[in-house]
């Protein structure tokens, strides 16, 4: 019975999602140009002759700005009536910072570019989630988020390949020029989503339904929602366990593999993205059909398994296989993060503010993760670091089981 | 950087008249933009050294300027390192000198993909060979990837610095590294 119903929903959804090709492209392009701003910045600045201290300072400025931006940017998007404009400004700002990084690798310009990029990213993610929410029927939101996550993962995978090729055949600078240029097609994709500014949102939507004069409900009562606090805690622990696994595993690959190390690490990065692209739509549909809790538990449980396997496995090629669990966790988290927050903030007008709050928790968890796991790896070795991360992942999974309630709205009738 | 700008202010004294205030601000902004956009060995630095900005007196206290052809001196931070068989080894990110100031080791950022999974490894300065003809060419190191991949990572906080040094010519098998 149930299975057949999901099948029909699928076919019906085909029709409604078809007109949202622009949203597919937007997710693809945004994640493609965002990939360049990761650890690659440090490679680029090294080749520009920067000292390690200066690189560390620039990257820390970016991290701090990113954490400080999450909530203000979320509030900003909530209070902006036209989410599409907010997204467009953010894309322009990110392109400008990519261009600045490519053209002026001096301290002031890079710091400014990192800070601008951090704030713009904190606007762009929630703005795309809000646009998605406006464009699709609430019953199809999970499914559409699955599609968003699929195209974002394809973008990440393609970007890793393209950047690798650029870095190899051209210059490191070309990567940032390429990222800046991608802003133009991203704006074009955004342009096709005109229905997103069609004014007052449907009452069933979570975003504000207040008249234009008062753009937002100023009450902060929603902060007391225990589901939001529980989810933020689980999300922070998820990233505390997750963020350091790839860097430490990749370091182990460099240590053990010979000349093929770079290709093995590339596979450790791209492999999980392919899994994410394959599984995200399923995660979205399953979360609508079975509820958020079981899928969330399933996704979180991939973390301790991956940590334990990474602690045991030494062969570089087996590490690639273990890394595929990362794709599973990322698919579930990437879809359920915007979905659960949407469930919780239904009709409060605080959707993107809450995304920002959880984003802050995620940023804190991820930053602590690399620091703490790095310390453990230095003093006790890589296996101990993976086991500690696995333990945190296990705690996160148990916490989801213990305190995270089902947030899916009860079916009418 | 900032004292260079300070010099400019003194030299361009004519800009200090009130009417030039706006021009001065814009001009300085432009100069800063150009100076920071260019390489550290920028046109601005060259101009100051040539005395083009007005100081023709010899520098005080007997210091003098030595001039080298560009090809004789090279920058070292960020320089690419390749093995003799032309494998990419990484880039030089720091130097270690001994108490007499002689370079003993170069720290290279080894391996990784797009900045993920790279390791900082100290390699003996004596293994580096510089291309005398082309100052911008990569430095060639007399070690290959397999010889340095498992070396302990360089850490500021450690009491012992392990520097990868090539084995004596008669035995070429690599010694096992401690698992730090």
What does this structure look like?
The complex is a heterodimer of chains A (413) and B (180). Chain A is mainly alpha-helical and 413 residues long. Chain A has two domains: 19-202, MFS general substrate transporter like domains (Growth Hormone, Chain: A); 223-413, MFS general substrate transporter like domains (Growth Hormone, Chain: A, Up-down Bundle), CATH 1.20.1250. Chain A has 16 helices and no strands. Chain A has helices spanning 2-18, 21-35, 40-47, 52-79, 83-103, 107-135, 141-169, 172-181, 183-191, 226-242, 245-256, 261-290, 292-312, 316-344, 351-380, 382-403. Residues 1-13 and 199-216 of chain A have low confidence and may be disordered. Chain B is α/β, with parallel strands linked by helices. In chain B, 21% of the residues lie in helices and 19% in strands. The longest helix of chain B has 17 residues, at 21-37. Chain B is globular. The chains are: A mainly alpha (413), B alpha/beta (180). Chain A binds chain B through residues 38-43, 46-52, 103-104, 106, 108-109, 160, 163-164, 167, 246-247, 249-251, 253-259, 261-263, 265-266, 268-269, 378, 381, and chain B through 36-37, 40, 75, 77-78, 80, 87, 91, 93-94, 109-119, 145-146, 149-150, 155, 179.
In short:
The complex is a heterodimer of chains A (413) and B (180). With 413 residues, chain A is an all-alpha fold. In chain A, 79% of the residues lie in helices and 0% in strands.
Kindly report how far apart the N and C termini of chain A lie: 17 Å
CATH topology of the largest domain in chain A: Growth Hormone, Chain: A
Number of spatially distinct domains of chain A: 2
CATH class designation of the largest domain in chain A: Mainly Alpha
Low-pLDDT residue intervals, each spanning 5 or more residues of chain A: 1-13, 199-216
Judging from the principal axes of the Cα atoms, what is the shape of chain B? globular
* Biggest interface, residues from each chain: A-B, 43 and 28 residues
Classification by helices and strands of chain A:
mainly alpha
């Amino acid at each position: 019975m149930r299975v057949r119903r999901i099948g029909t929903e699928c076919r019906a959804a085909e029709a409604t999602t078809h007109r949202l090709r622009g949203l597919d492209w937007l997710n693809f392009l945004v994640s493609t140009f965002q990939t360049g701003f990761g650890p690659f910045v440090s490679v680029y600045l090294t080749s520009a002759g920067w000292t390690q201290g200066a690189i560390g300072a620039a990257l820390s400025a970016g991290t701090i700005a990113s954490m400080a931006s999450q909530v203000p940017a979320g509030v900003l998007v909530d209070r902006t009536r036209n989410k599409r404009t907010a997204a467009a400004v953010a894309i322009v700002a990110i392109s400008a910072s990519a261009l600045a990084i490519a053209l002026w690798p001096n301290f002031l310009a890079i710091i400014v570019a990192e800070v601008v990029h951090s704030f713009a990213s904190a606007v762009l993610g929630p703005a795309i989630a809000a646009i998605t929410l406006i464009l699709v029927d609430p019953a199809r939101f999970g499914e559409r988020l699955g599609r968003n996550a699929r195209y974002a993962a394809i973008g990440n995978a393609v970007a890793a390949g393209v950047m690798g090729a650029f870095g190899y055949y051209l210059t490191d600078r070309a990567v940032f020029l390429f990222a800046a240029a991608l802003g133009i097609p991203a704006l074009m994709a955004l342009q096709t989503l005109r229905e997103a500014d069609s004014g007052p949102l449907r009452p069933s939507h979570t975003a504000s339904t207040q008249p234009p004069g008062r753009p937002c409900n100023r009450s902060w009562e929603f902060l007391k929602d225990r589901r939001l606090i529980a989810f933020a805690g689980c999300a922070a622990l998820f990233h505390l366990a997750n963020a350091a696994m790839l860097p430490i595993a990749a370091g182990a690959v460099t240590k053990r593999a010979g000349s093929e190390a770079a290709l093995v690490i590339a596979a450790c990065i791209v492999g999980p993205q392919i899994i994410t692209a394959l599984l995200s739509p399923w995660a979205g549909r399953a979360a609508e059909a079975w509820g958020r809790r079981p899928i969330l538990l399933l996704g979180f449980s991939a973390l301790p398994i991956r940590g334990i396997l990474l602690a045991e496995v030494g062969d570089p090629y087996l590490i690639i296989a273990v890394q595929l669990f990362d794709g599973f966790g990322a698919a579930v988290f990437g879809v359920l993060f915007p979905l659960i927050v949407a469930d919780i903030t239904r009709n409060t007008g605080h959707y993107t503010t809450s995304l920002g709050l959880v984003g802050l928790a995620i940023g804190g968890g991820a930053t602590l993760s690399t620091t703490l796991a790095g310390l453990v790896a230095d003093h006790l070795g890589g296996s101990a670091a993976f086991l500690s991360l696995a333990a945190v992942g296990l705690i996160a999974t148990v916490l989801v089981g213990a305190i995270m309630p089902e947030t899916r709205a009860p079916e009418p009738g | 950087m900032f004292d260079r700008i300070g010099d400019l202010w003194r030299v361009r004294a004519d800009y200090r008249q009130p009417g030039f205030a706006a021009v001065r601000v814009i001009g300085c902004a432009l100069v800063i933009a150009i100076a920071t956009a260019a390489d550290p060995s920028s046109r601005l630095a060259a101009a100051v050294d040539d005395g083009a900005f007005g100081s023709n007196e010899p520098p005080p206290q007997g210091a003098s300027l030595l001039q080298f052809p560009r090809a004789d001196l090279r920058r070292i931070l960020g320089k690419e390192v390749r093995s003799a068989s032309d494998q990419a080894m990484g880039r030089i990110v720091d130097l270690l000198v001994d108490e007499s100031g002689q370079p003993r080791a170069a720290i290279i950022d080894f391996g990784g993909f797009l900045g993920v999974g790279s390791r900082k490894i100290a390699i003996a300065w004596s293994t580096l060979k510089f291309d005398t003809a082309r100052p911008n060419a990569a430095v060639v190191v007399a070690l290959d990837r397999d010889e340095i991949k498992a070396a302990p990572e360089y850490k500021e906080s450690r009491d012992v610095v392990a520097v990868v040094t090539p084995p004596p010519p008669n035995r070429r098998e690599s010694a096992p590294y401690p698992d730090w």
